[in-house]
Write a structure and sequence with these properties.
heterodimer, A: alpha+beta, Aldehyde Oxidoreductase, domain 3, Aldehyde Oxidoreductase, domain 4, seven-stranded mixed beta sheet, 15 helices, 25% strand, B: alpha+beta, Enolase-like, domain 1, 12 helices, globular, FAD-bd_PCMH_sub1 (chain B), CO_DH_flav_C_dom_sf (chain B), FAD binding (chain B)
Chain lengths: 698, 330
């Protein structure tokens, strides 16, 4: 079947329905993983390596075991032997090797969390320490080309003759940009409650996908998939950190194995989130642009460098968005990776697009400046007719309309292209623009079940996740329209492996994938049982293949505008206004969508001005590993953030016409702010974050 | 955290007695810093003596025109007190620029004064730190230095004192009232905190068992206006990169009197005596302010990660003094 052959008229879809889980959340009755009421829980605290590379020569647990209340101490000596699933990050306590500082080397189970933490501090470890290497630099001689980059994209691409086109170009930009290391820090850290009973494992886990956890944890413990139960109805944010299992859930399952029948509760401390939950790699991006005097690109080249860990490869697809943004006959993109003694990088909101659109979109601003062309106009001039590298037509592309509408909203005509031209209320004032992009990912493999109840009510079940993003509400709206009933008649069930399999909440694909399955199931229900099915009638639908993905390039686009104010003496930076206009297909719920987009832009603002994990290469870890020192934008830093969208009807993407909005809001924000900073001050910041010291004269 | 005992003290004498017979005992005020340290293993006391019920929570006028602030007055109460807001705006401003509303509601005046550095290595027991473990080394010398000292540091320690309140108190010539096993004593605020030298483990001159019962704030001389200016990496809830507390009296365009203290630059609130000397009698102009700032900062010894603080401190000091003159820039 094709999932796009029939579409339904939206009724509930498109309305700003209040969050169905809102009351439970604001009254504190929505239970998160750690809060599950379980009998006589034990508590786990992790023991972490204090060297960045080496071998454990001795691990003394005697003092820890002697603490009253301690039930078990886990080390690589007594840990259950796991099956080798080829994922070294999950091979917890399987050897004496230390691959990064902060790696789990043990765990203490005790009757209280305080006791577990105290006893963990008493574990004494000696190491055969080896010199570590943690510094990412563009001039390393051991950078390598990975087989693929994250998302399954080609590592390198090339068309035409970039070098010749650059040499012949009237105007060129050749600059190197860098983004910092960033850590996903949802309010709720990684948490798990694990319990073994009758040879089966139950995990209350804070995750972006219950079925994904089950399918990866089960083989580690040599269990059938059905012997692992994962429950996760509410998640306190993920941002990618919960998109794939990390070591902690494995440690929790191991610890629970030592106290069978007794649930073990485990939550990472905030500090531990900086070594065990993934992070966004720092990137170095050399961007070269060649254009005629009117700014029309002849050549576009992006060479991106990132880091990965010794034990597991993650290659950020930093240059991938540049394959889609602008027309240029001669183009190339490359990715190179340094393998270092660092924690395992992973997904963080819009991997690839988020860091990659910093260098690329600041470079476009530099080109606009060099050509004397308005930055909005420059982007319009380089709008491609088809996807530049694949040659496919776009299923829909409304970047130009986003740029025009955003320019109108921010008052772009007030912008003086000359830097340092605006001085108001003791501050240098500037405006900047950047584009946003995010692919429409098609994730097959989800299924949903619709069951008819009494009185025309329906239960819709799918093992999907709500990270605080609005799944409970938006999926209910989709189900209601697909069944052609009011939302009050639909009871949604998600976040549990008892429900049908669902793809992970990642790549902004959740609503697209799960919604397609729900629509299919609803259609089957009507086909099999008509308008008045008997109570107990059931129908299941799947997210199958979408052949249109072969015929069209599918992307959401957006434009972000920033107004910035910089103190001329102290360099203090404030962003009083951000405007984002997006073209992201049909918006299921304008209320939760606005929250998603504003949230993404806020995170982008935070990346622009504040966030930076300072990696201490001597010690071998992130130095500023708490919320006092790792700065995230506070309310006082966030002033007016306006997110809006264009009506976009895309018949090709999926039955709902949705494109996904979870990530595009963070793409381009930092570039817009940096470009505004240049307009305000004449200082071109090419290395994030945009901190006050970058504006100070000595 | 390491298990500990807890006692609530009923009066000052009892609190001091509890500590003086137990080297492992510490006072517990608002707990906003100490409780973090208990969790992190930075502090491992055997006994917490809760002093928050002691009758030290009053703000009262002194006969000489000054004000006495009790040691357990909460930061938020102190910041909002009409007497403080009217007579010592610099102190109220400093308090409100620190921490968050929730933390200020808990934190005490004495505890604020005694809070410990936020150097990331001091707070991480897996790294070397001479302040936490004397002789273990200083990780900051080759590490994260953005919040570290440019003045008065030593090869053993480049930590800064994190308080905003104490910087304002330094400019107010506050006097710390202390009760200890050997009785009461008064310590001028400028002498209360130490420079690190080769004993960075000692933040202050306080001896074990001594309790800060009050801070006395002398009246600011007539004609002096005061201001606190904090520069930080985000608009709220961040420690100062540089802060300036200043009090200024300008007559006929000439600086009649001035007091300046800098925060975020040293192991203690940094009273800028040299800048003050340069300014007294000088015309109240940007040029004078800049010369005075440069004179003070000529002793600065920044490290690679905080060299920007020298121009930042200079510029912030100039801007703050200018603001006190009521002029606008340029």
């Amino acid at each position: 079947m094709t999932t796009t052959d029939r579409r339904f008229p939206p009724r509930a879809v498109g309305t700003p329905l209040d969050r169905l889980d809102g009351h439970a959340k604001v009254t504190g009755t929505a239970r998160y993983a750690y809060e599950q009421p379980v009998d006589a829980p034990a508590y786990l605290h992790a023991v972490q390596a204090t060297v960045a590379r080496g071998r454990i020569t001795a691990i003394d647990t005697e003092a820890a075991e002697a603490v009253p209340g301690v039930l078990a101490v886990l080390t690589h000596h007594n840990a259950p032997r796991l099956a080798d699933t080829g994922d070294a990050e999950l091979a917890v306590l399987q050897s004496d090797a230390v691959a990064f500082r902060g790696q789990i080397i043990g765990g203490v189970v005790a009757t209280t969390s305080e006791t577990a933490r105290y006893a963990a501090s008493l574990v004494r470890t000696t190491y055969d320490e080896q010199p570590h290497d943690t510094g990412l630099r563009a001039d390393r001689d051991d950078l390598y080309a990975p087989e693929k980059v994250n998302g399954g994209y080609a590592t390198d691409t090339a068309q035409g003759d970039v070098e010749a086109a650059l040499a012949a170009a009237a105007v060129t930009v050749d600059r190197t940009y860098s983004t910092a290391m960033y850590h996903n820090n949802p309010m709720e850290p990684l948490t798990t409650v694990a319990c073994w009973a009758d040879g089966e494992l139950t995990l209350h886990d804070s995750t972006q996908g219950v079925h994904m956890v089950r399918s990866q944890v089960a083989p580690l413990f040599r269990l059938e998939t059905e012997q692992v139960h994962v429950v996760s109805p509410h998640v306190g944010g993920g941002f990618g950190s919960k998109g794939t299992p990390h070591a902690p859930v494995v440690l929790a399952a191991m610890a629970a194995h030592l106290v069978p029948g007794r649930p073990v509760k485990f939550a990472l401390t905030r500090q531990q989130m900086f070594s065990l939950a993934g992070y966004r790699t720092p990137t170095v991006q050399r961007v070269r642009l060649g254009a005629d005097r009117d700014g029309r690109l002849a050549a576009l080249s992006v060479d991106a460098i990132s880091q990965t860990s010794r034990i597991k490869e993650f290659a950020e697809q930093t240059a991938v968005p540049s394959r889609t943004m602008y027309a240029a006959p001669h183009r190339r993109t490359t990715h190179r990776v340094a393998r270092l003694d660092v924690p395992v990088p992973s997904w963080m909101r819009a991997p690839g697009e988020c860091p990659g659109m910093f260098g690329a979109e600041v470079a476009m601003d530099e080109l606009a400046d060099a050509c004397g062309v308005d930055p909005v106009e420059l982007r319009v001039r380089n709008e491609p007719e088809t996807d530049p590298e694949s040659g496919l037509p776009f299923s829909s592309r409304n970047l130009v309309a986003c740029l025009r509408e955003g320019a109108r909203r921010i008052g772009w005509e007030r912008r003086d292209p000359t830097p340092r031209a605006r001085y108001e209320e003791g501050r240098l004032v500037g405006l900047g623009v950047a584009a946003s992009v995010y692919p429409v990912l098609w994730m097959p493999g989800s299924s949903a079940t619709v069951r008819a109840g009494a009185d025309g009510r329906y239960t819709v079940s799918i093992g999907a996740a709500d990270l605080g993003t609005g799944t409970w509400t938006a999926l209910t709206q989709i189900a209601a329209d697909a069944l052609d009933v009011p939302v009050e008649r639909v009871e949604l069930r998600i976040g549990d492996t008892v429900f049908p399999p669902a793809s992970v909440a990642g790549g902004s694909s959740g609503i697209t994938a799960w919604g397609s399955a729900v629509v299919h199931a609803a259609r089957r229900m009507r086909e099999s049982f008509g308008e008045s099915p008997h109570e107990g009638a059931e129908a299941t639908g799947e997210t199958g293949d979408n052949p249109a993905t072969e015929r069209f390039a599918m992307y959401a686009f957006g434009a972000q505008f920033a107004e910035i104010r910089v103190h001329p003496e102290t360099g203090e930076v404030r962003v009083p206004r951000l405007v984002g206009v997006f073209a992201a297909g049909r918006i299921v719920n304008p209320k939760t969508a606005r929250s998603q987009l504003i949230g993404g832009m806020t995170m982008g603002l935070s990346m622009a001005l504040h966030e930076q994990s300072y990696f201490d290469d001597h010690v071998g870890q992130v130095a500023n590993h708490d919320f006092a020192e790792y700065h995230i934008a506070t309310n006082a830093d966030v002033d007016r953030i306006e997110a809006s969208w264009l009506d976009e009807d895309d018949p090709h993407v999926n039955p709902m016409g949705t494109k996904g909005i979870g990530e595009i809001g963070i793409v381009g924000t930092a570039a817009a702010v940096a470009n505004a900073a240049y307009n305000a001050t004449g200082v071109r910041v090419r290395d994030l974050p945009i901190t006050l010291d970058k504006f100070l004269d000595s | 955290m390491k298990p500990f005992d807890y006692r609530r003290a009923d009066d000052v004498a009892a609190a001091v007695a509890l500590l003086s017979r137990d080297r492992e005992a510490v006072f517990l005020g608002g707990g906003t810093n100490l409780v973090d340290h208990l969790r992190l293993g930075v502090a491992t006391p055997g006994l917490l003596v809760d002093i928050t019920r002691l009758p030290l929570d009053r703000i009262e006028e002194l006969p000489d025109g000054g004000v006495r602030v009790g040691g357990t007055v909460r930061n938020s109460d102190l910041a909002a007190d009409p007497l403080i807001r009217e007579r010592y705006p610099v102190l109220s401003q400093a308090l409100l620029s620190g921490a968050s509303g929730q933390l200020r509601n808990l934190a005490t005046t004495g505890g604020n004064l005694l809070q410990r550095t936020r150097c990331v290595y001091f707070q991480d027991v897996t790294t070397a730190c001479n302040k936490r473990v004397p002789g273990s080394g200083c990780s900051a010398l080759e590490g994260y230095q953005r919040y570290h000292a440019i003045l008065g540091a030593s090869p053993d320690c480049i930590a800064t004192h994190p308080s905003d309140m104490a910087v304002a108190m330094a400019v107010l010539d506050a006097v710390v009232q202390v009760t200890g096993p050997d009785g009461e004593r008064a310590v001028p605020l400028g002498d209360f905190h130490r420079l690190p030298g080769d004993e960075p483990q000692h933040d202050t001159v306080l001896r074990h068992g001594e309790l800060v019962t009050a801070m006395d704030l002398p009246a600011l001389p007539d004609g002096m206006t005061s201001l606190y200016r904090k520069v930080r990496d985000r608009a709220s809830y961040a420690f100062a990169l540089v802060s300036v507390a200043a009090a200024l009296d300008v007559r006929d365009g000439v600086v009649a009197d001035v007091r300046i203290a800098l925060g975020g630059v040293a192991h203690k609130p940094w009273r800028a005596a040299r800048a003050e000397r340069e300014l007294r009698g000088a015309p109240a102009t940007d040029d004078s302010f800049r010369r005075a700032a440069e004179a003070e900062l000529s002793a600065a010894q920044p490290v690679a990660g905080n060299a920007f603080k020298v121009p930042l401190a200079r510029n912030t000091l100039v801007a703050t003094l200018r603001e006190l003159t009521g002029r606008t820039p340029r």
